[in-house]
């Protein structure tokens, strides 16, 4: 009986020592401590990306190609707003609430002196007006259905100190990589927008 007990105790000691040796391996020592495991970050080389590749998920900002500075103004935007002159555009009263809210809350954002009011007019359409802070007169923005497109990348783009207004940046199809621009230039003397057909006139070289 004593021999059997001795054999059992000896067997347990042998297996116990083997298990202890595995747990005391140097690799396991590092895992028992507070170890931070970092993942490898793979940086995609965009220098060889084919723009026509539909699998390319890189964000493209077409508005960055527009040369607003070419039509920049030197004057600083006015901080004083004249009351809205509804008599200058009686039909705009149909949108009185929207125009008033935009004029009250927004700052000058176009051609040095104009506050813009823009709002939807359908699934792929926006319309709007601009108000001159110097005299409160209202003018149409070149938006609406005639300046919209089914696949618009961006719409109603302008800058505070530029006379250039981009109504839409459009694609022929959703999968197209090429875009076209609906661009206008504000004529301060005539108080009207003139269409720019040649993209070379307003796109950066």
Can you give me a brief rundown of this structure?
This protein is of the alpha+beta class and 205 residues long.
Describe this structure in words.
With 205 residues, this protein is an alpha+beta fold. It has 2 domains: 2-31; 62-201, no CATH class. It has 3 helices and 7 strands. The strands form 2 sheets. A 4-stranded antiparallel beta sheet has the order 4-5-6-7, with no helix packed on it. Strands 1-2-3 form a 3-stranded antiparallel beta sheet, covered by helices on one side. It is globular, with a radius of gyration of 33 Å. The protein starts with a helix and ends in a 9-residue tail after the last strand. Mean pLDDT is 76; it is low at 5-58.
Can you lay out the helices and strands and say which pair or pack?
Layout (H helix, E strand, L loop, with lengths): L1 H22 L2 H7 L63 H10 L8 E9 L2 E8 L5 E3 L10 E8 L5 E8 L8 E8 L4 E5 L9
Antiparallel strand pairs: 1-2, 2-3, 4-5, 5-6, 6-7
């Amino acid at each position: 009986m004593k021999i059997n007990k001795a054999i059992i105790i000896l067997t347990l000691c042998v297996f116990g020592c083997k298990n202890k040796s595995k747990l005391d391996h140097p690799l396991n020592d590092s895992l028992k401590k507070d170890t931070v495991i970092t993942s490898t970050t793979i940086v995609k080389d965009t220098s060889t990306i084919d723009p026509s590749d539909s699998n390319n998920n890189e964000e493209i900002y077409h508005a960055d190609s527009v040369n607003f500075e070419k039509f920049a103004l030197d004057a600083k935007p006015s901080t004083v707003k004249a009351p809205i002159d509804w008599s200058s555009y009686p039909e705009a009263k149909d949108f009185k609430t929207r125009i008033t809210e935009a004029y009250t809350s927004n700052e000058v954002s176009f051609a040095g002196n104009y506050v813009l009011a823009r709002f939807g007019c359908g699934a792929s359409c926006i319309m709007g007006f601009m108000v001159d802070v110097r005299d409160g007169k209202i003018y149409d923005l070149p938006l609406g259905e005639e300046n919209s497109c089914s696949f618009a990348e961006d719409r109603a783009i302008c800058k505070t100190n530029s006379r250039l207004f981009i109504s839409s940046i459009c694609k022929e199809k959703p999968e197209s990589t090429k875009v076209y621009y609906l661009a206008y230039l504000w004529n301060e003397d005539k108080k009207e927008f003139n269409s720019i057909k040649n993209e070379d006139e307003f796109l950066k070289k």
